Amino acid sequence: MAKTALVTGGTRGIGKAISEMLQAKGYSVAANYGGNDAAAAAFSKETGIKVFKFDVADYDAVGVGLKAVEAEVGPVDVLVNNAGITRDAPFHKMTLAHWQEVINVDLTSAFNVTRQVWDGMRERNFGRIINISSINGQKGQFTQANYSAAKAGLIGFTKALAYEGAKKGITSNVVAPGYIDTEMLQAVKPEVLEGIIATIPVGRLGKAEEIASMCAYLASEEAAFINGATMTVNGAQYIAG
Ligand code: NDP
To answer: One GO CC term of this entry (predicted)?
Structure first.
């Protein structure tokens, strides 16, 4: 029977590419989203993938959403924690609301979803947790104290889970994208983006599909020995030690 994959924020951008690639690899895919009904409906119509609207920052809403995913698609074997937002501001202007929103959506979300699929994965002796971090969680970034903290937090979270899931056939890994051409980058001023592209040795932004293919590999049976790793996919913009 096909394995079930849940991709949070799976209807747009990088998540959309991940949903589509996992579907192409034969998974039964469920795609979560937060509020953009039009994009989700268009995605679902185009791909036939079922979409599930719930706020990943809300533990109880995640519980309700996961029940629907399980009933309509299946128990989650592969979880891609991809949903994320930015609320950039120089630190001297960053508010507690900026901080909390990003920590909740980009980091606490991973706890909320993973915790509620973890027991099932343990029972079935198989699981794949893939957490989408960021180059800016690895190296930090101006105006992103909140985002860099959340994305770095995902790396520590993943390493702890790697130990705990290992004996139960569950692997936990991070994918850390560089700058990828999605709507998220529309929040970056064009002149700033130009400067960023100049620092990417391959001289271009990444494509969502280039993140999706890494996720598909980590989800596969072949990747069973990769556990606790951070896979950078960034065109050599930042080479972690
Ligand atoms: P997009 O803004 O294009 O898409 C974000 C997705 O996340 C949407 O599907 C959105 O749903 C969903 N989402 C946002 N908030 C919530 C929420 N509270 N509950 C449920 N779903 C939510 O982002 P990208 O595709 O660019 O980014 C995807 C991931 O990759 C993020 O974690 C991001 O931090 C990370 N990343 C992106 C990089 C880039 O250059 N683009 C670089 C490095 C990392 P809806 O459609 O309803 O709004």
So the answer is: cytoplasm
Which tokens sit at 168?
């139960």
Q: Half-sphere exposure of residue 186, counting CA atoms within 13 Å on the CB side?
A: 4
ipTM rounded to 2 decimals: 0.99
| Ligand 1 near 65 CB (within 6 A) | no
Does residue 192 form part of some domain?
no
Strands annotated E in 37-148: 50-53, 78-81, 127-132
Residue 195 in domain: no
* Model confidence pLDDT, tens digit, residues 3-55: 999 999 999 999 999 999 999 999 999 999 999 999 999 999 999 999 999 99
Q: Supply the range of the domain harboring residue 32.
A: 4-181+207-231
Decide: 127 in ligand 1 pocket, CB within 6 A.
no
How does the average pLDDT of the chain come out, rounded? Answer: 97
147 in catalytic set: yes
What CATH number does the domain containing 37 carry? Answer: 3.40.50.720
Number of domains in the chain: 1
In a domain, 111, yes or no: yes
- The pair of structure tokens assigned to 173 is 């890994």
Orientation of helix 145-165 relative to helix 109-124, angle to 10°? 10
- SS3 breakdown of the chain: % helix, strand, coil, rounded to 5? 55, 15, 30
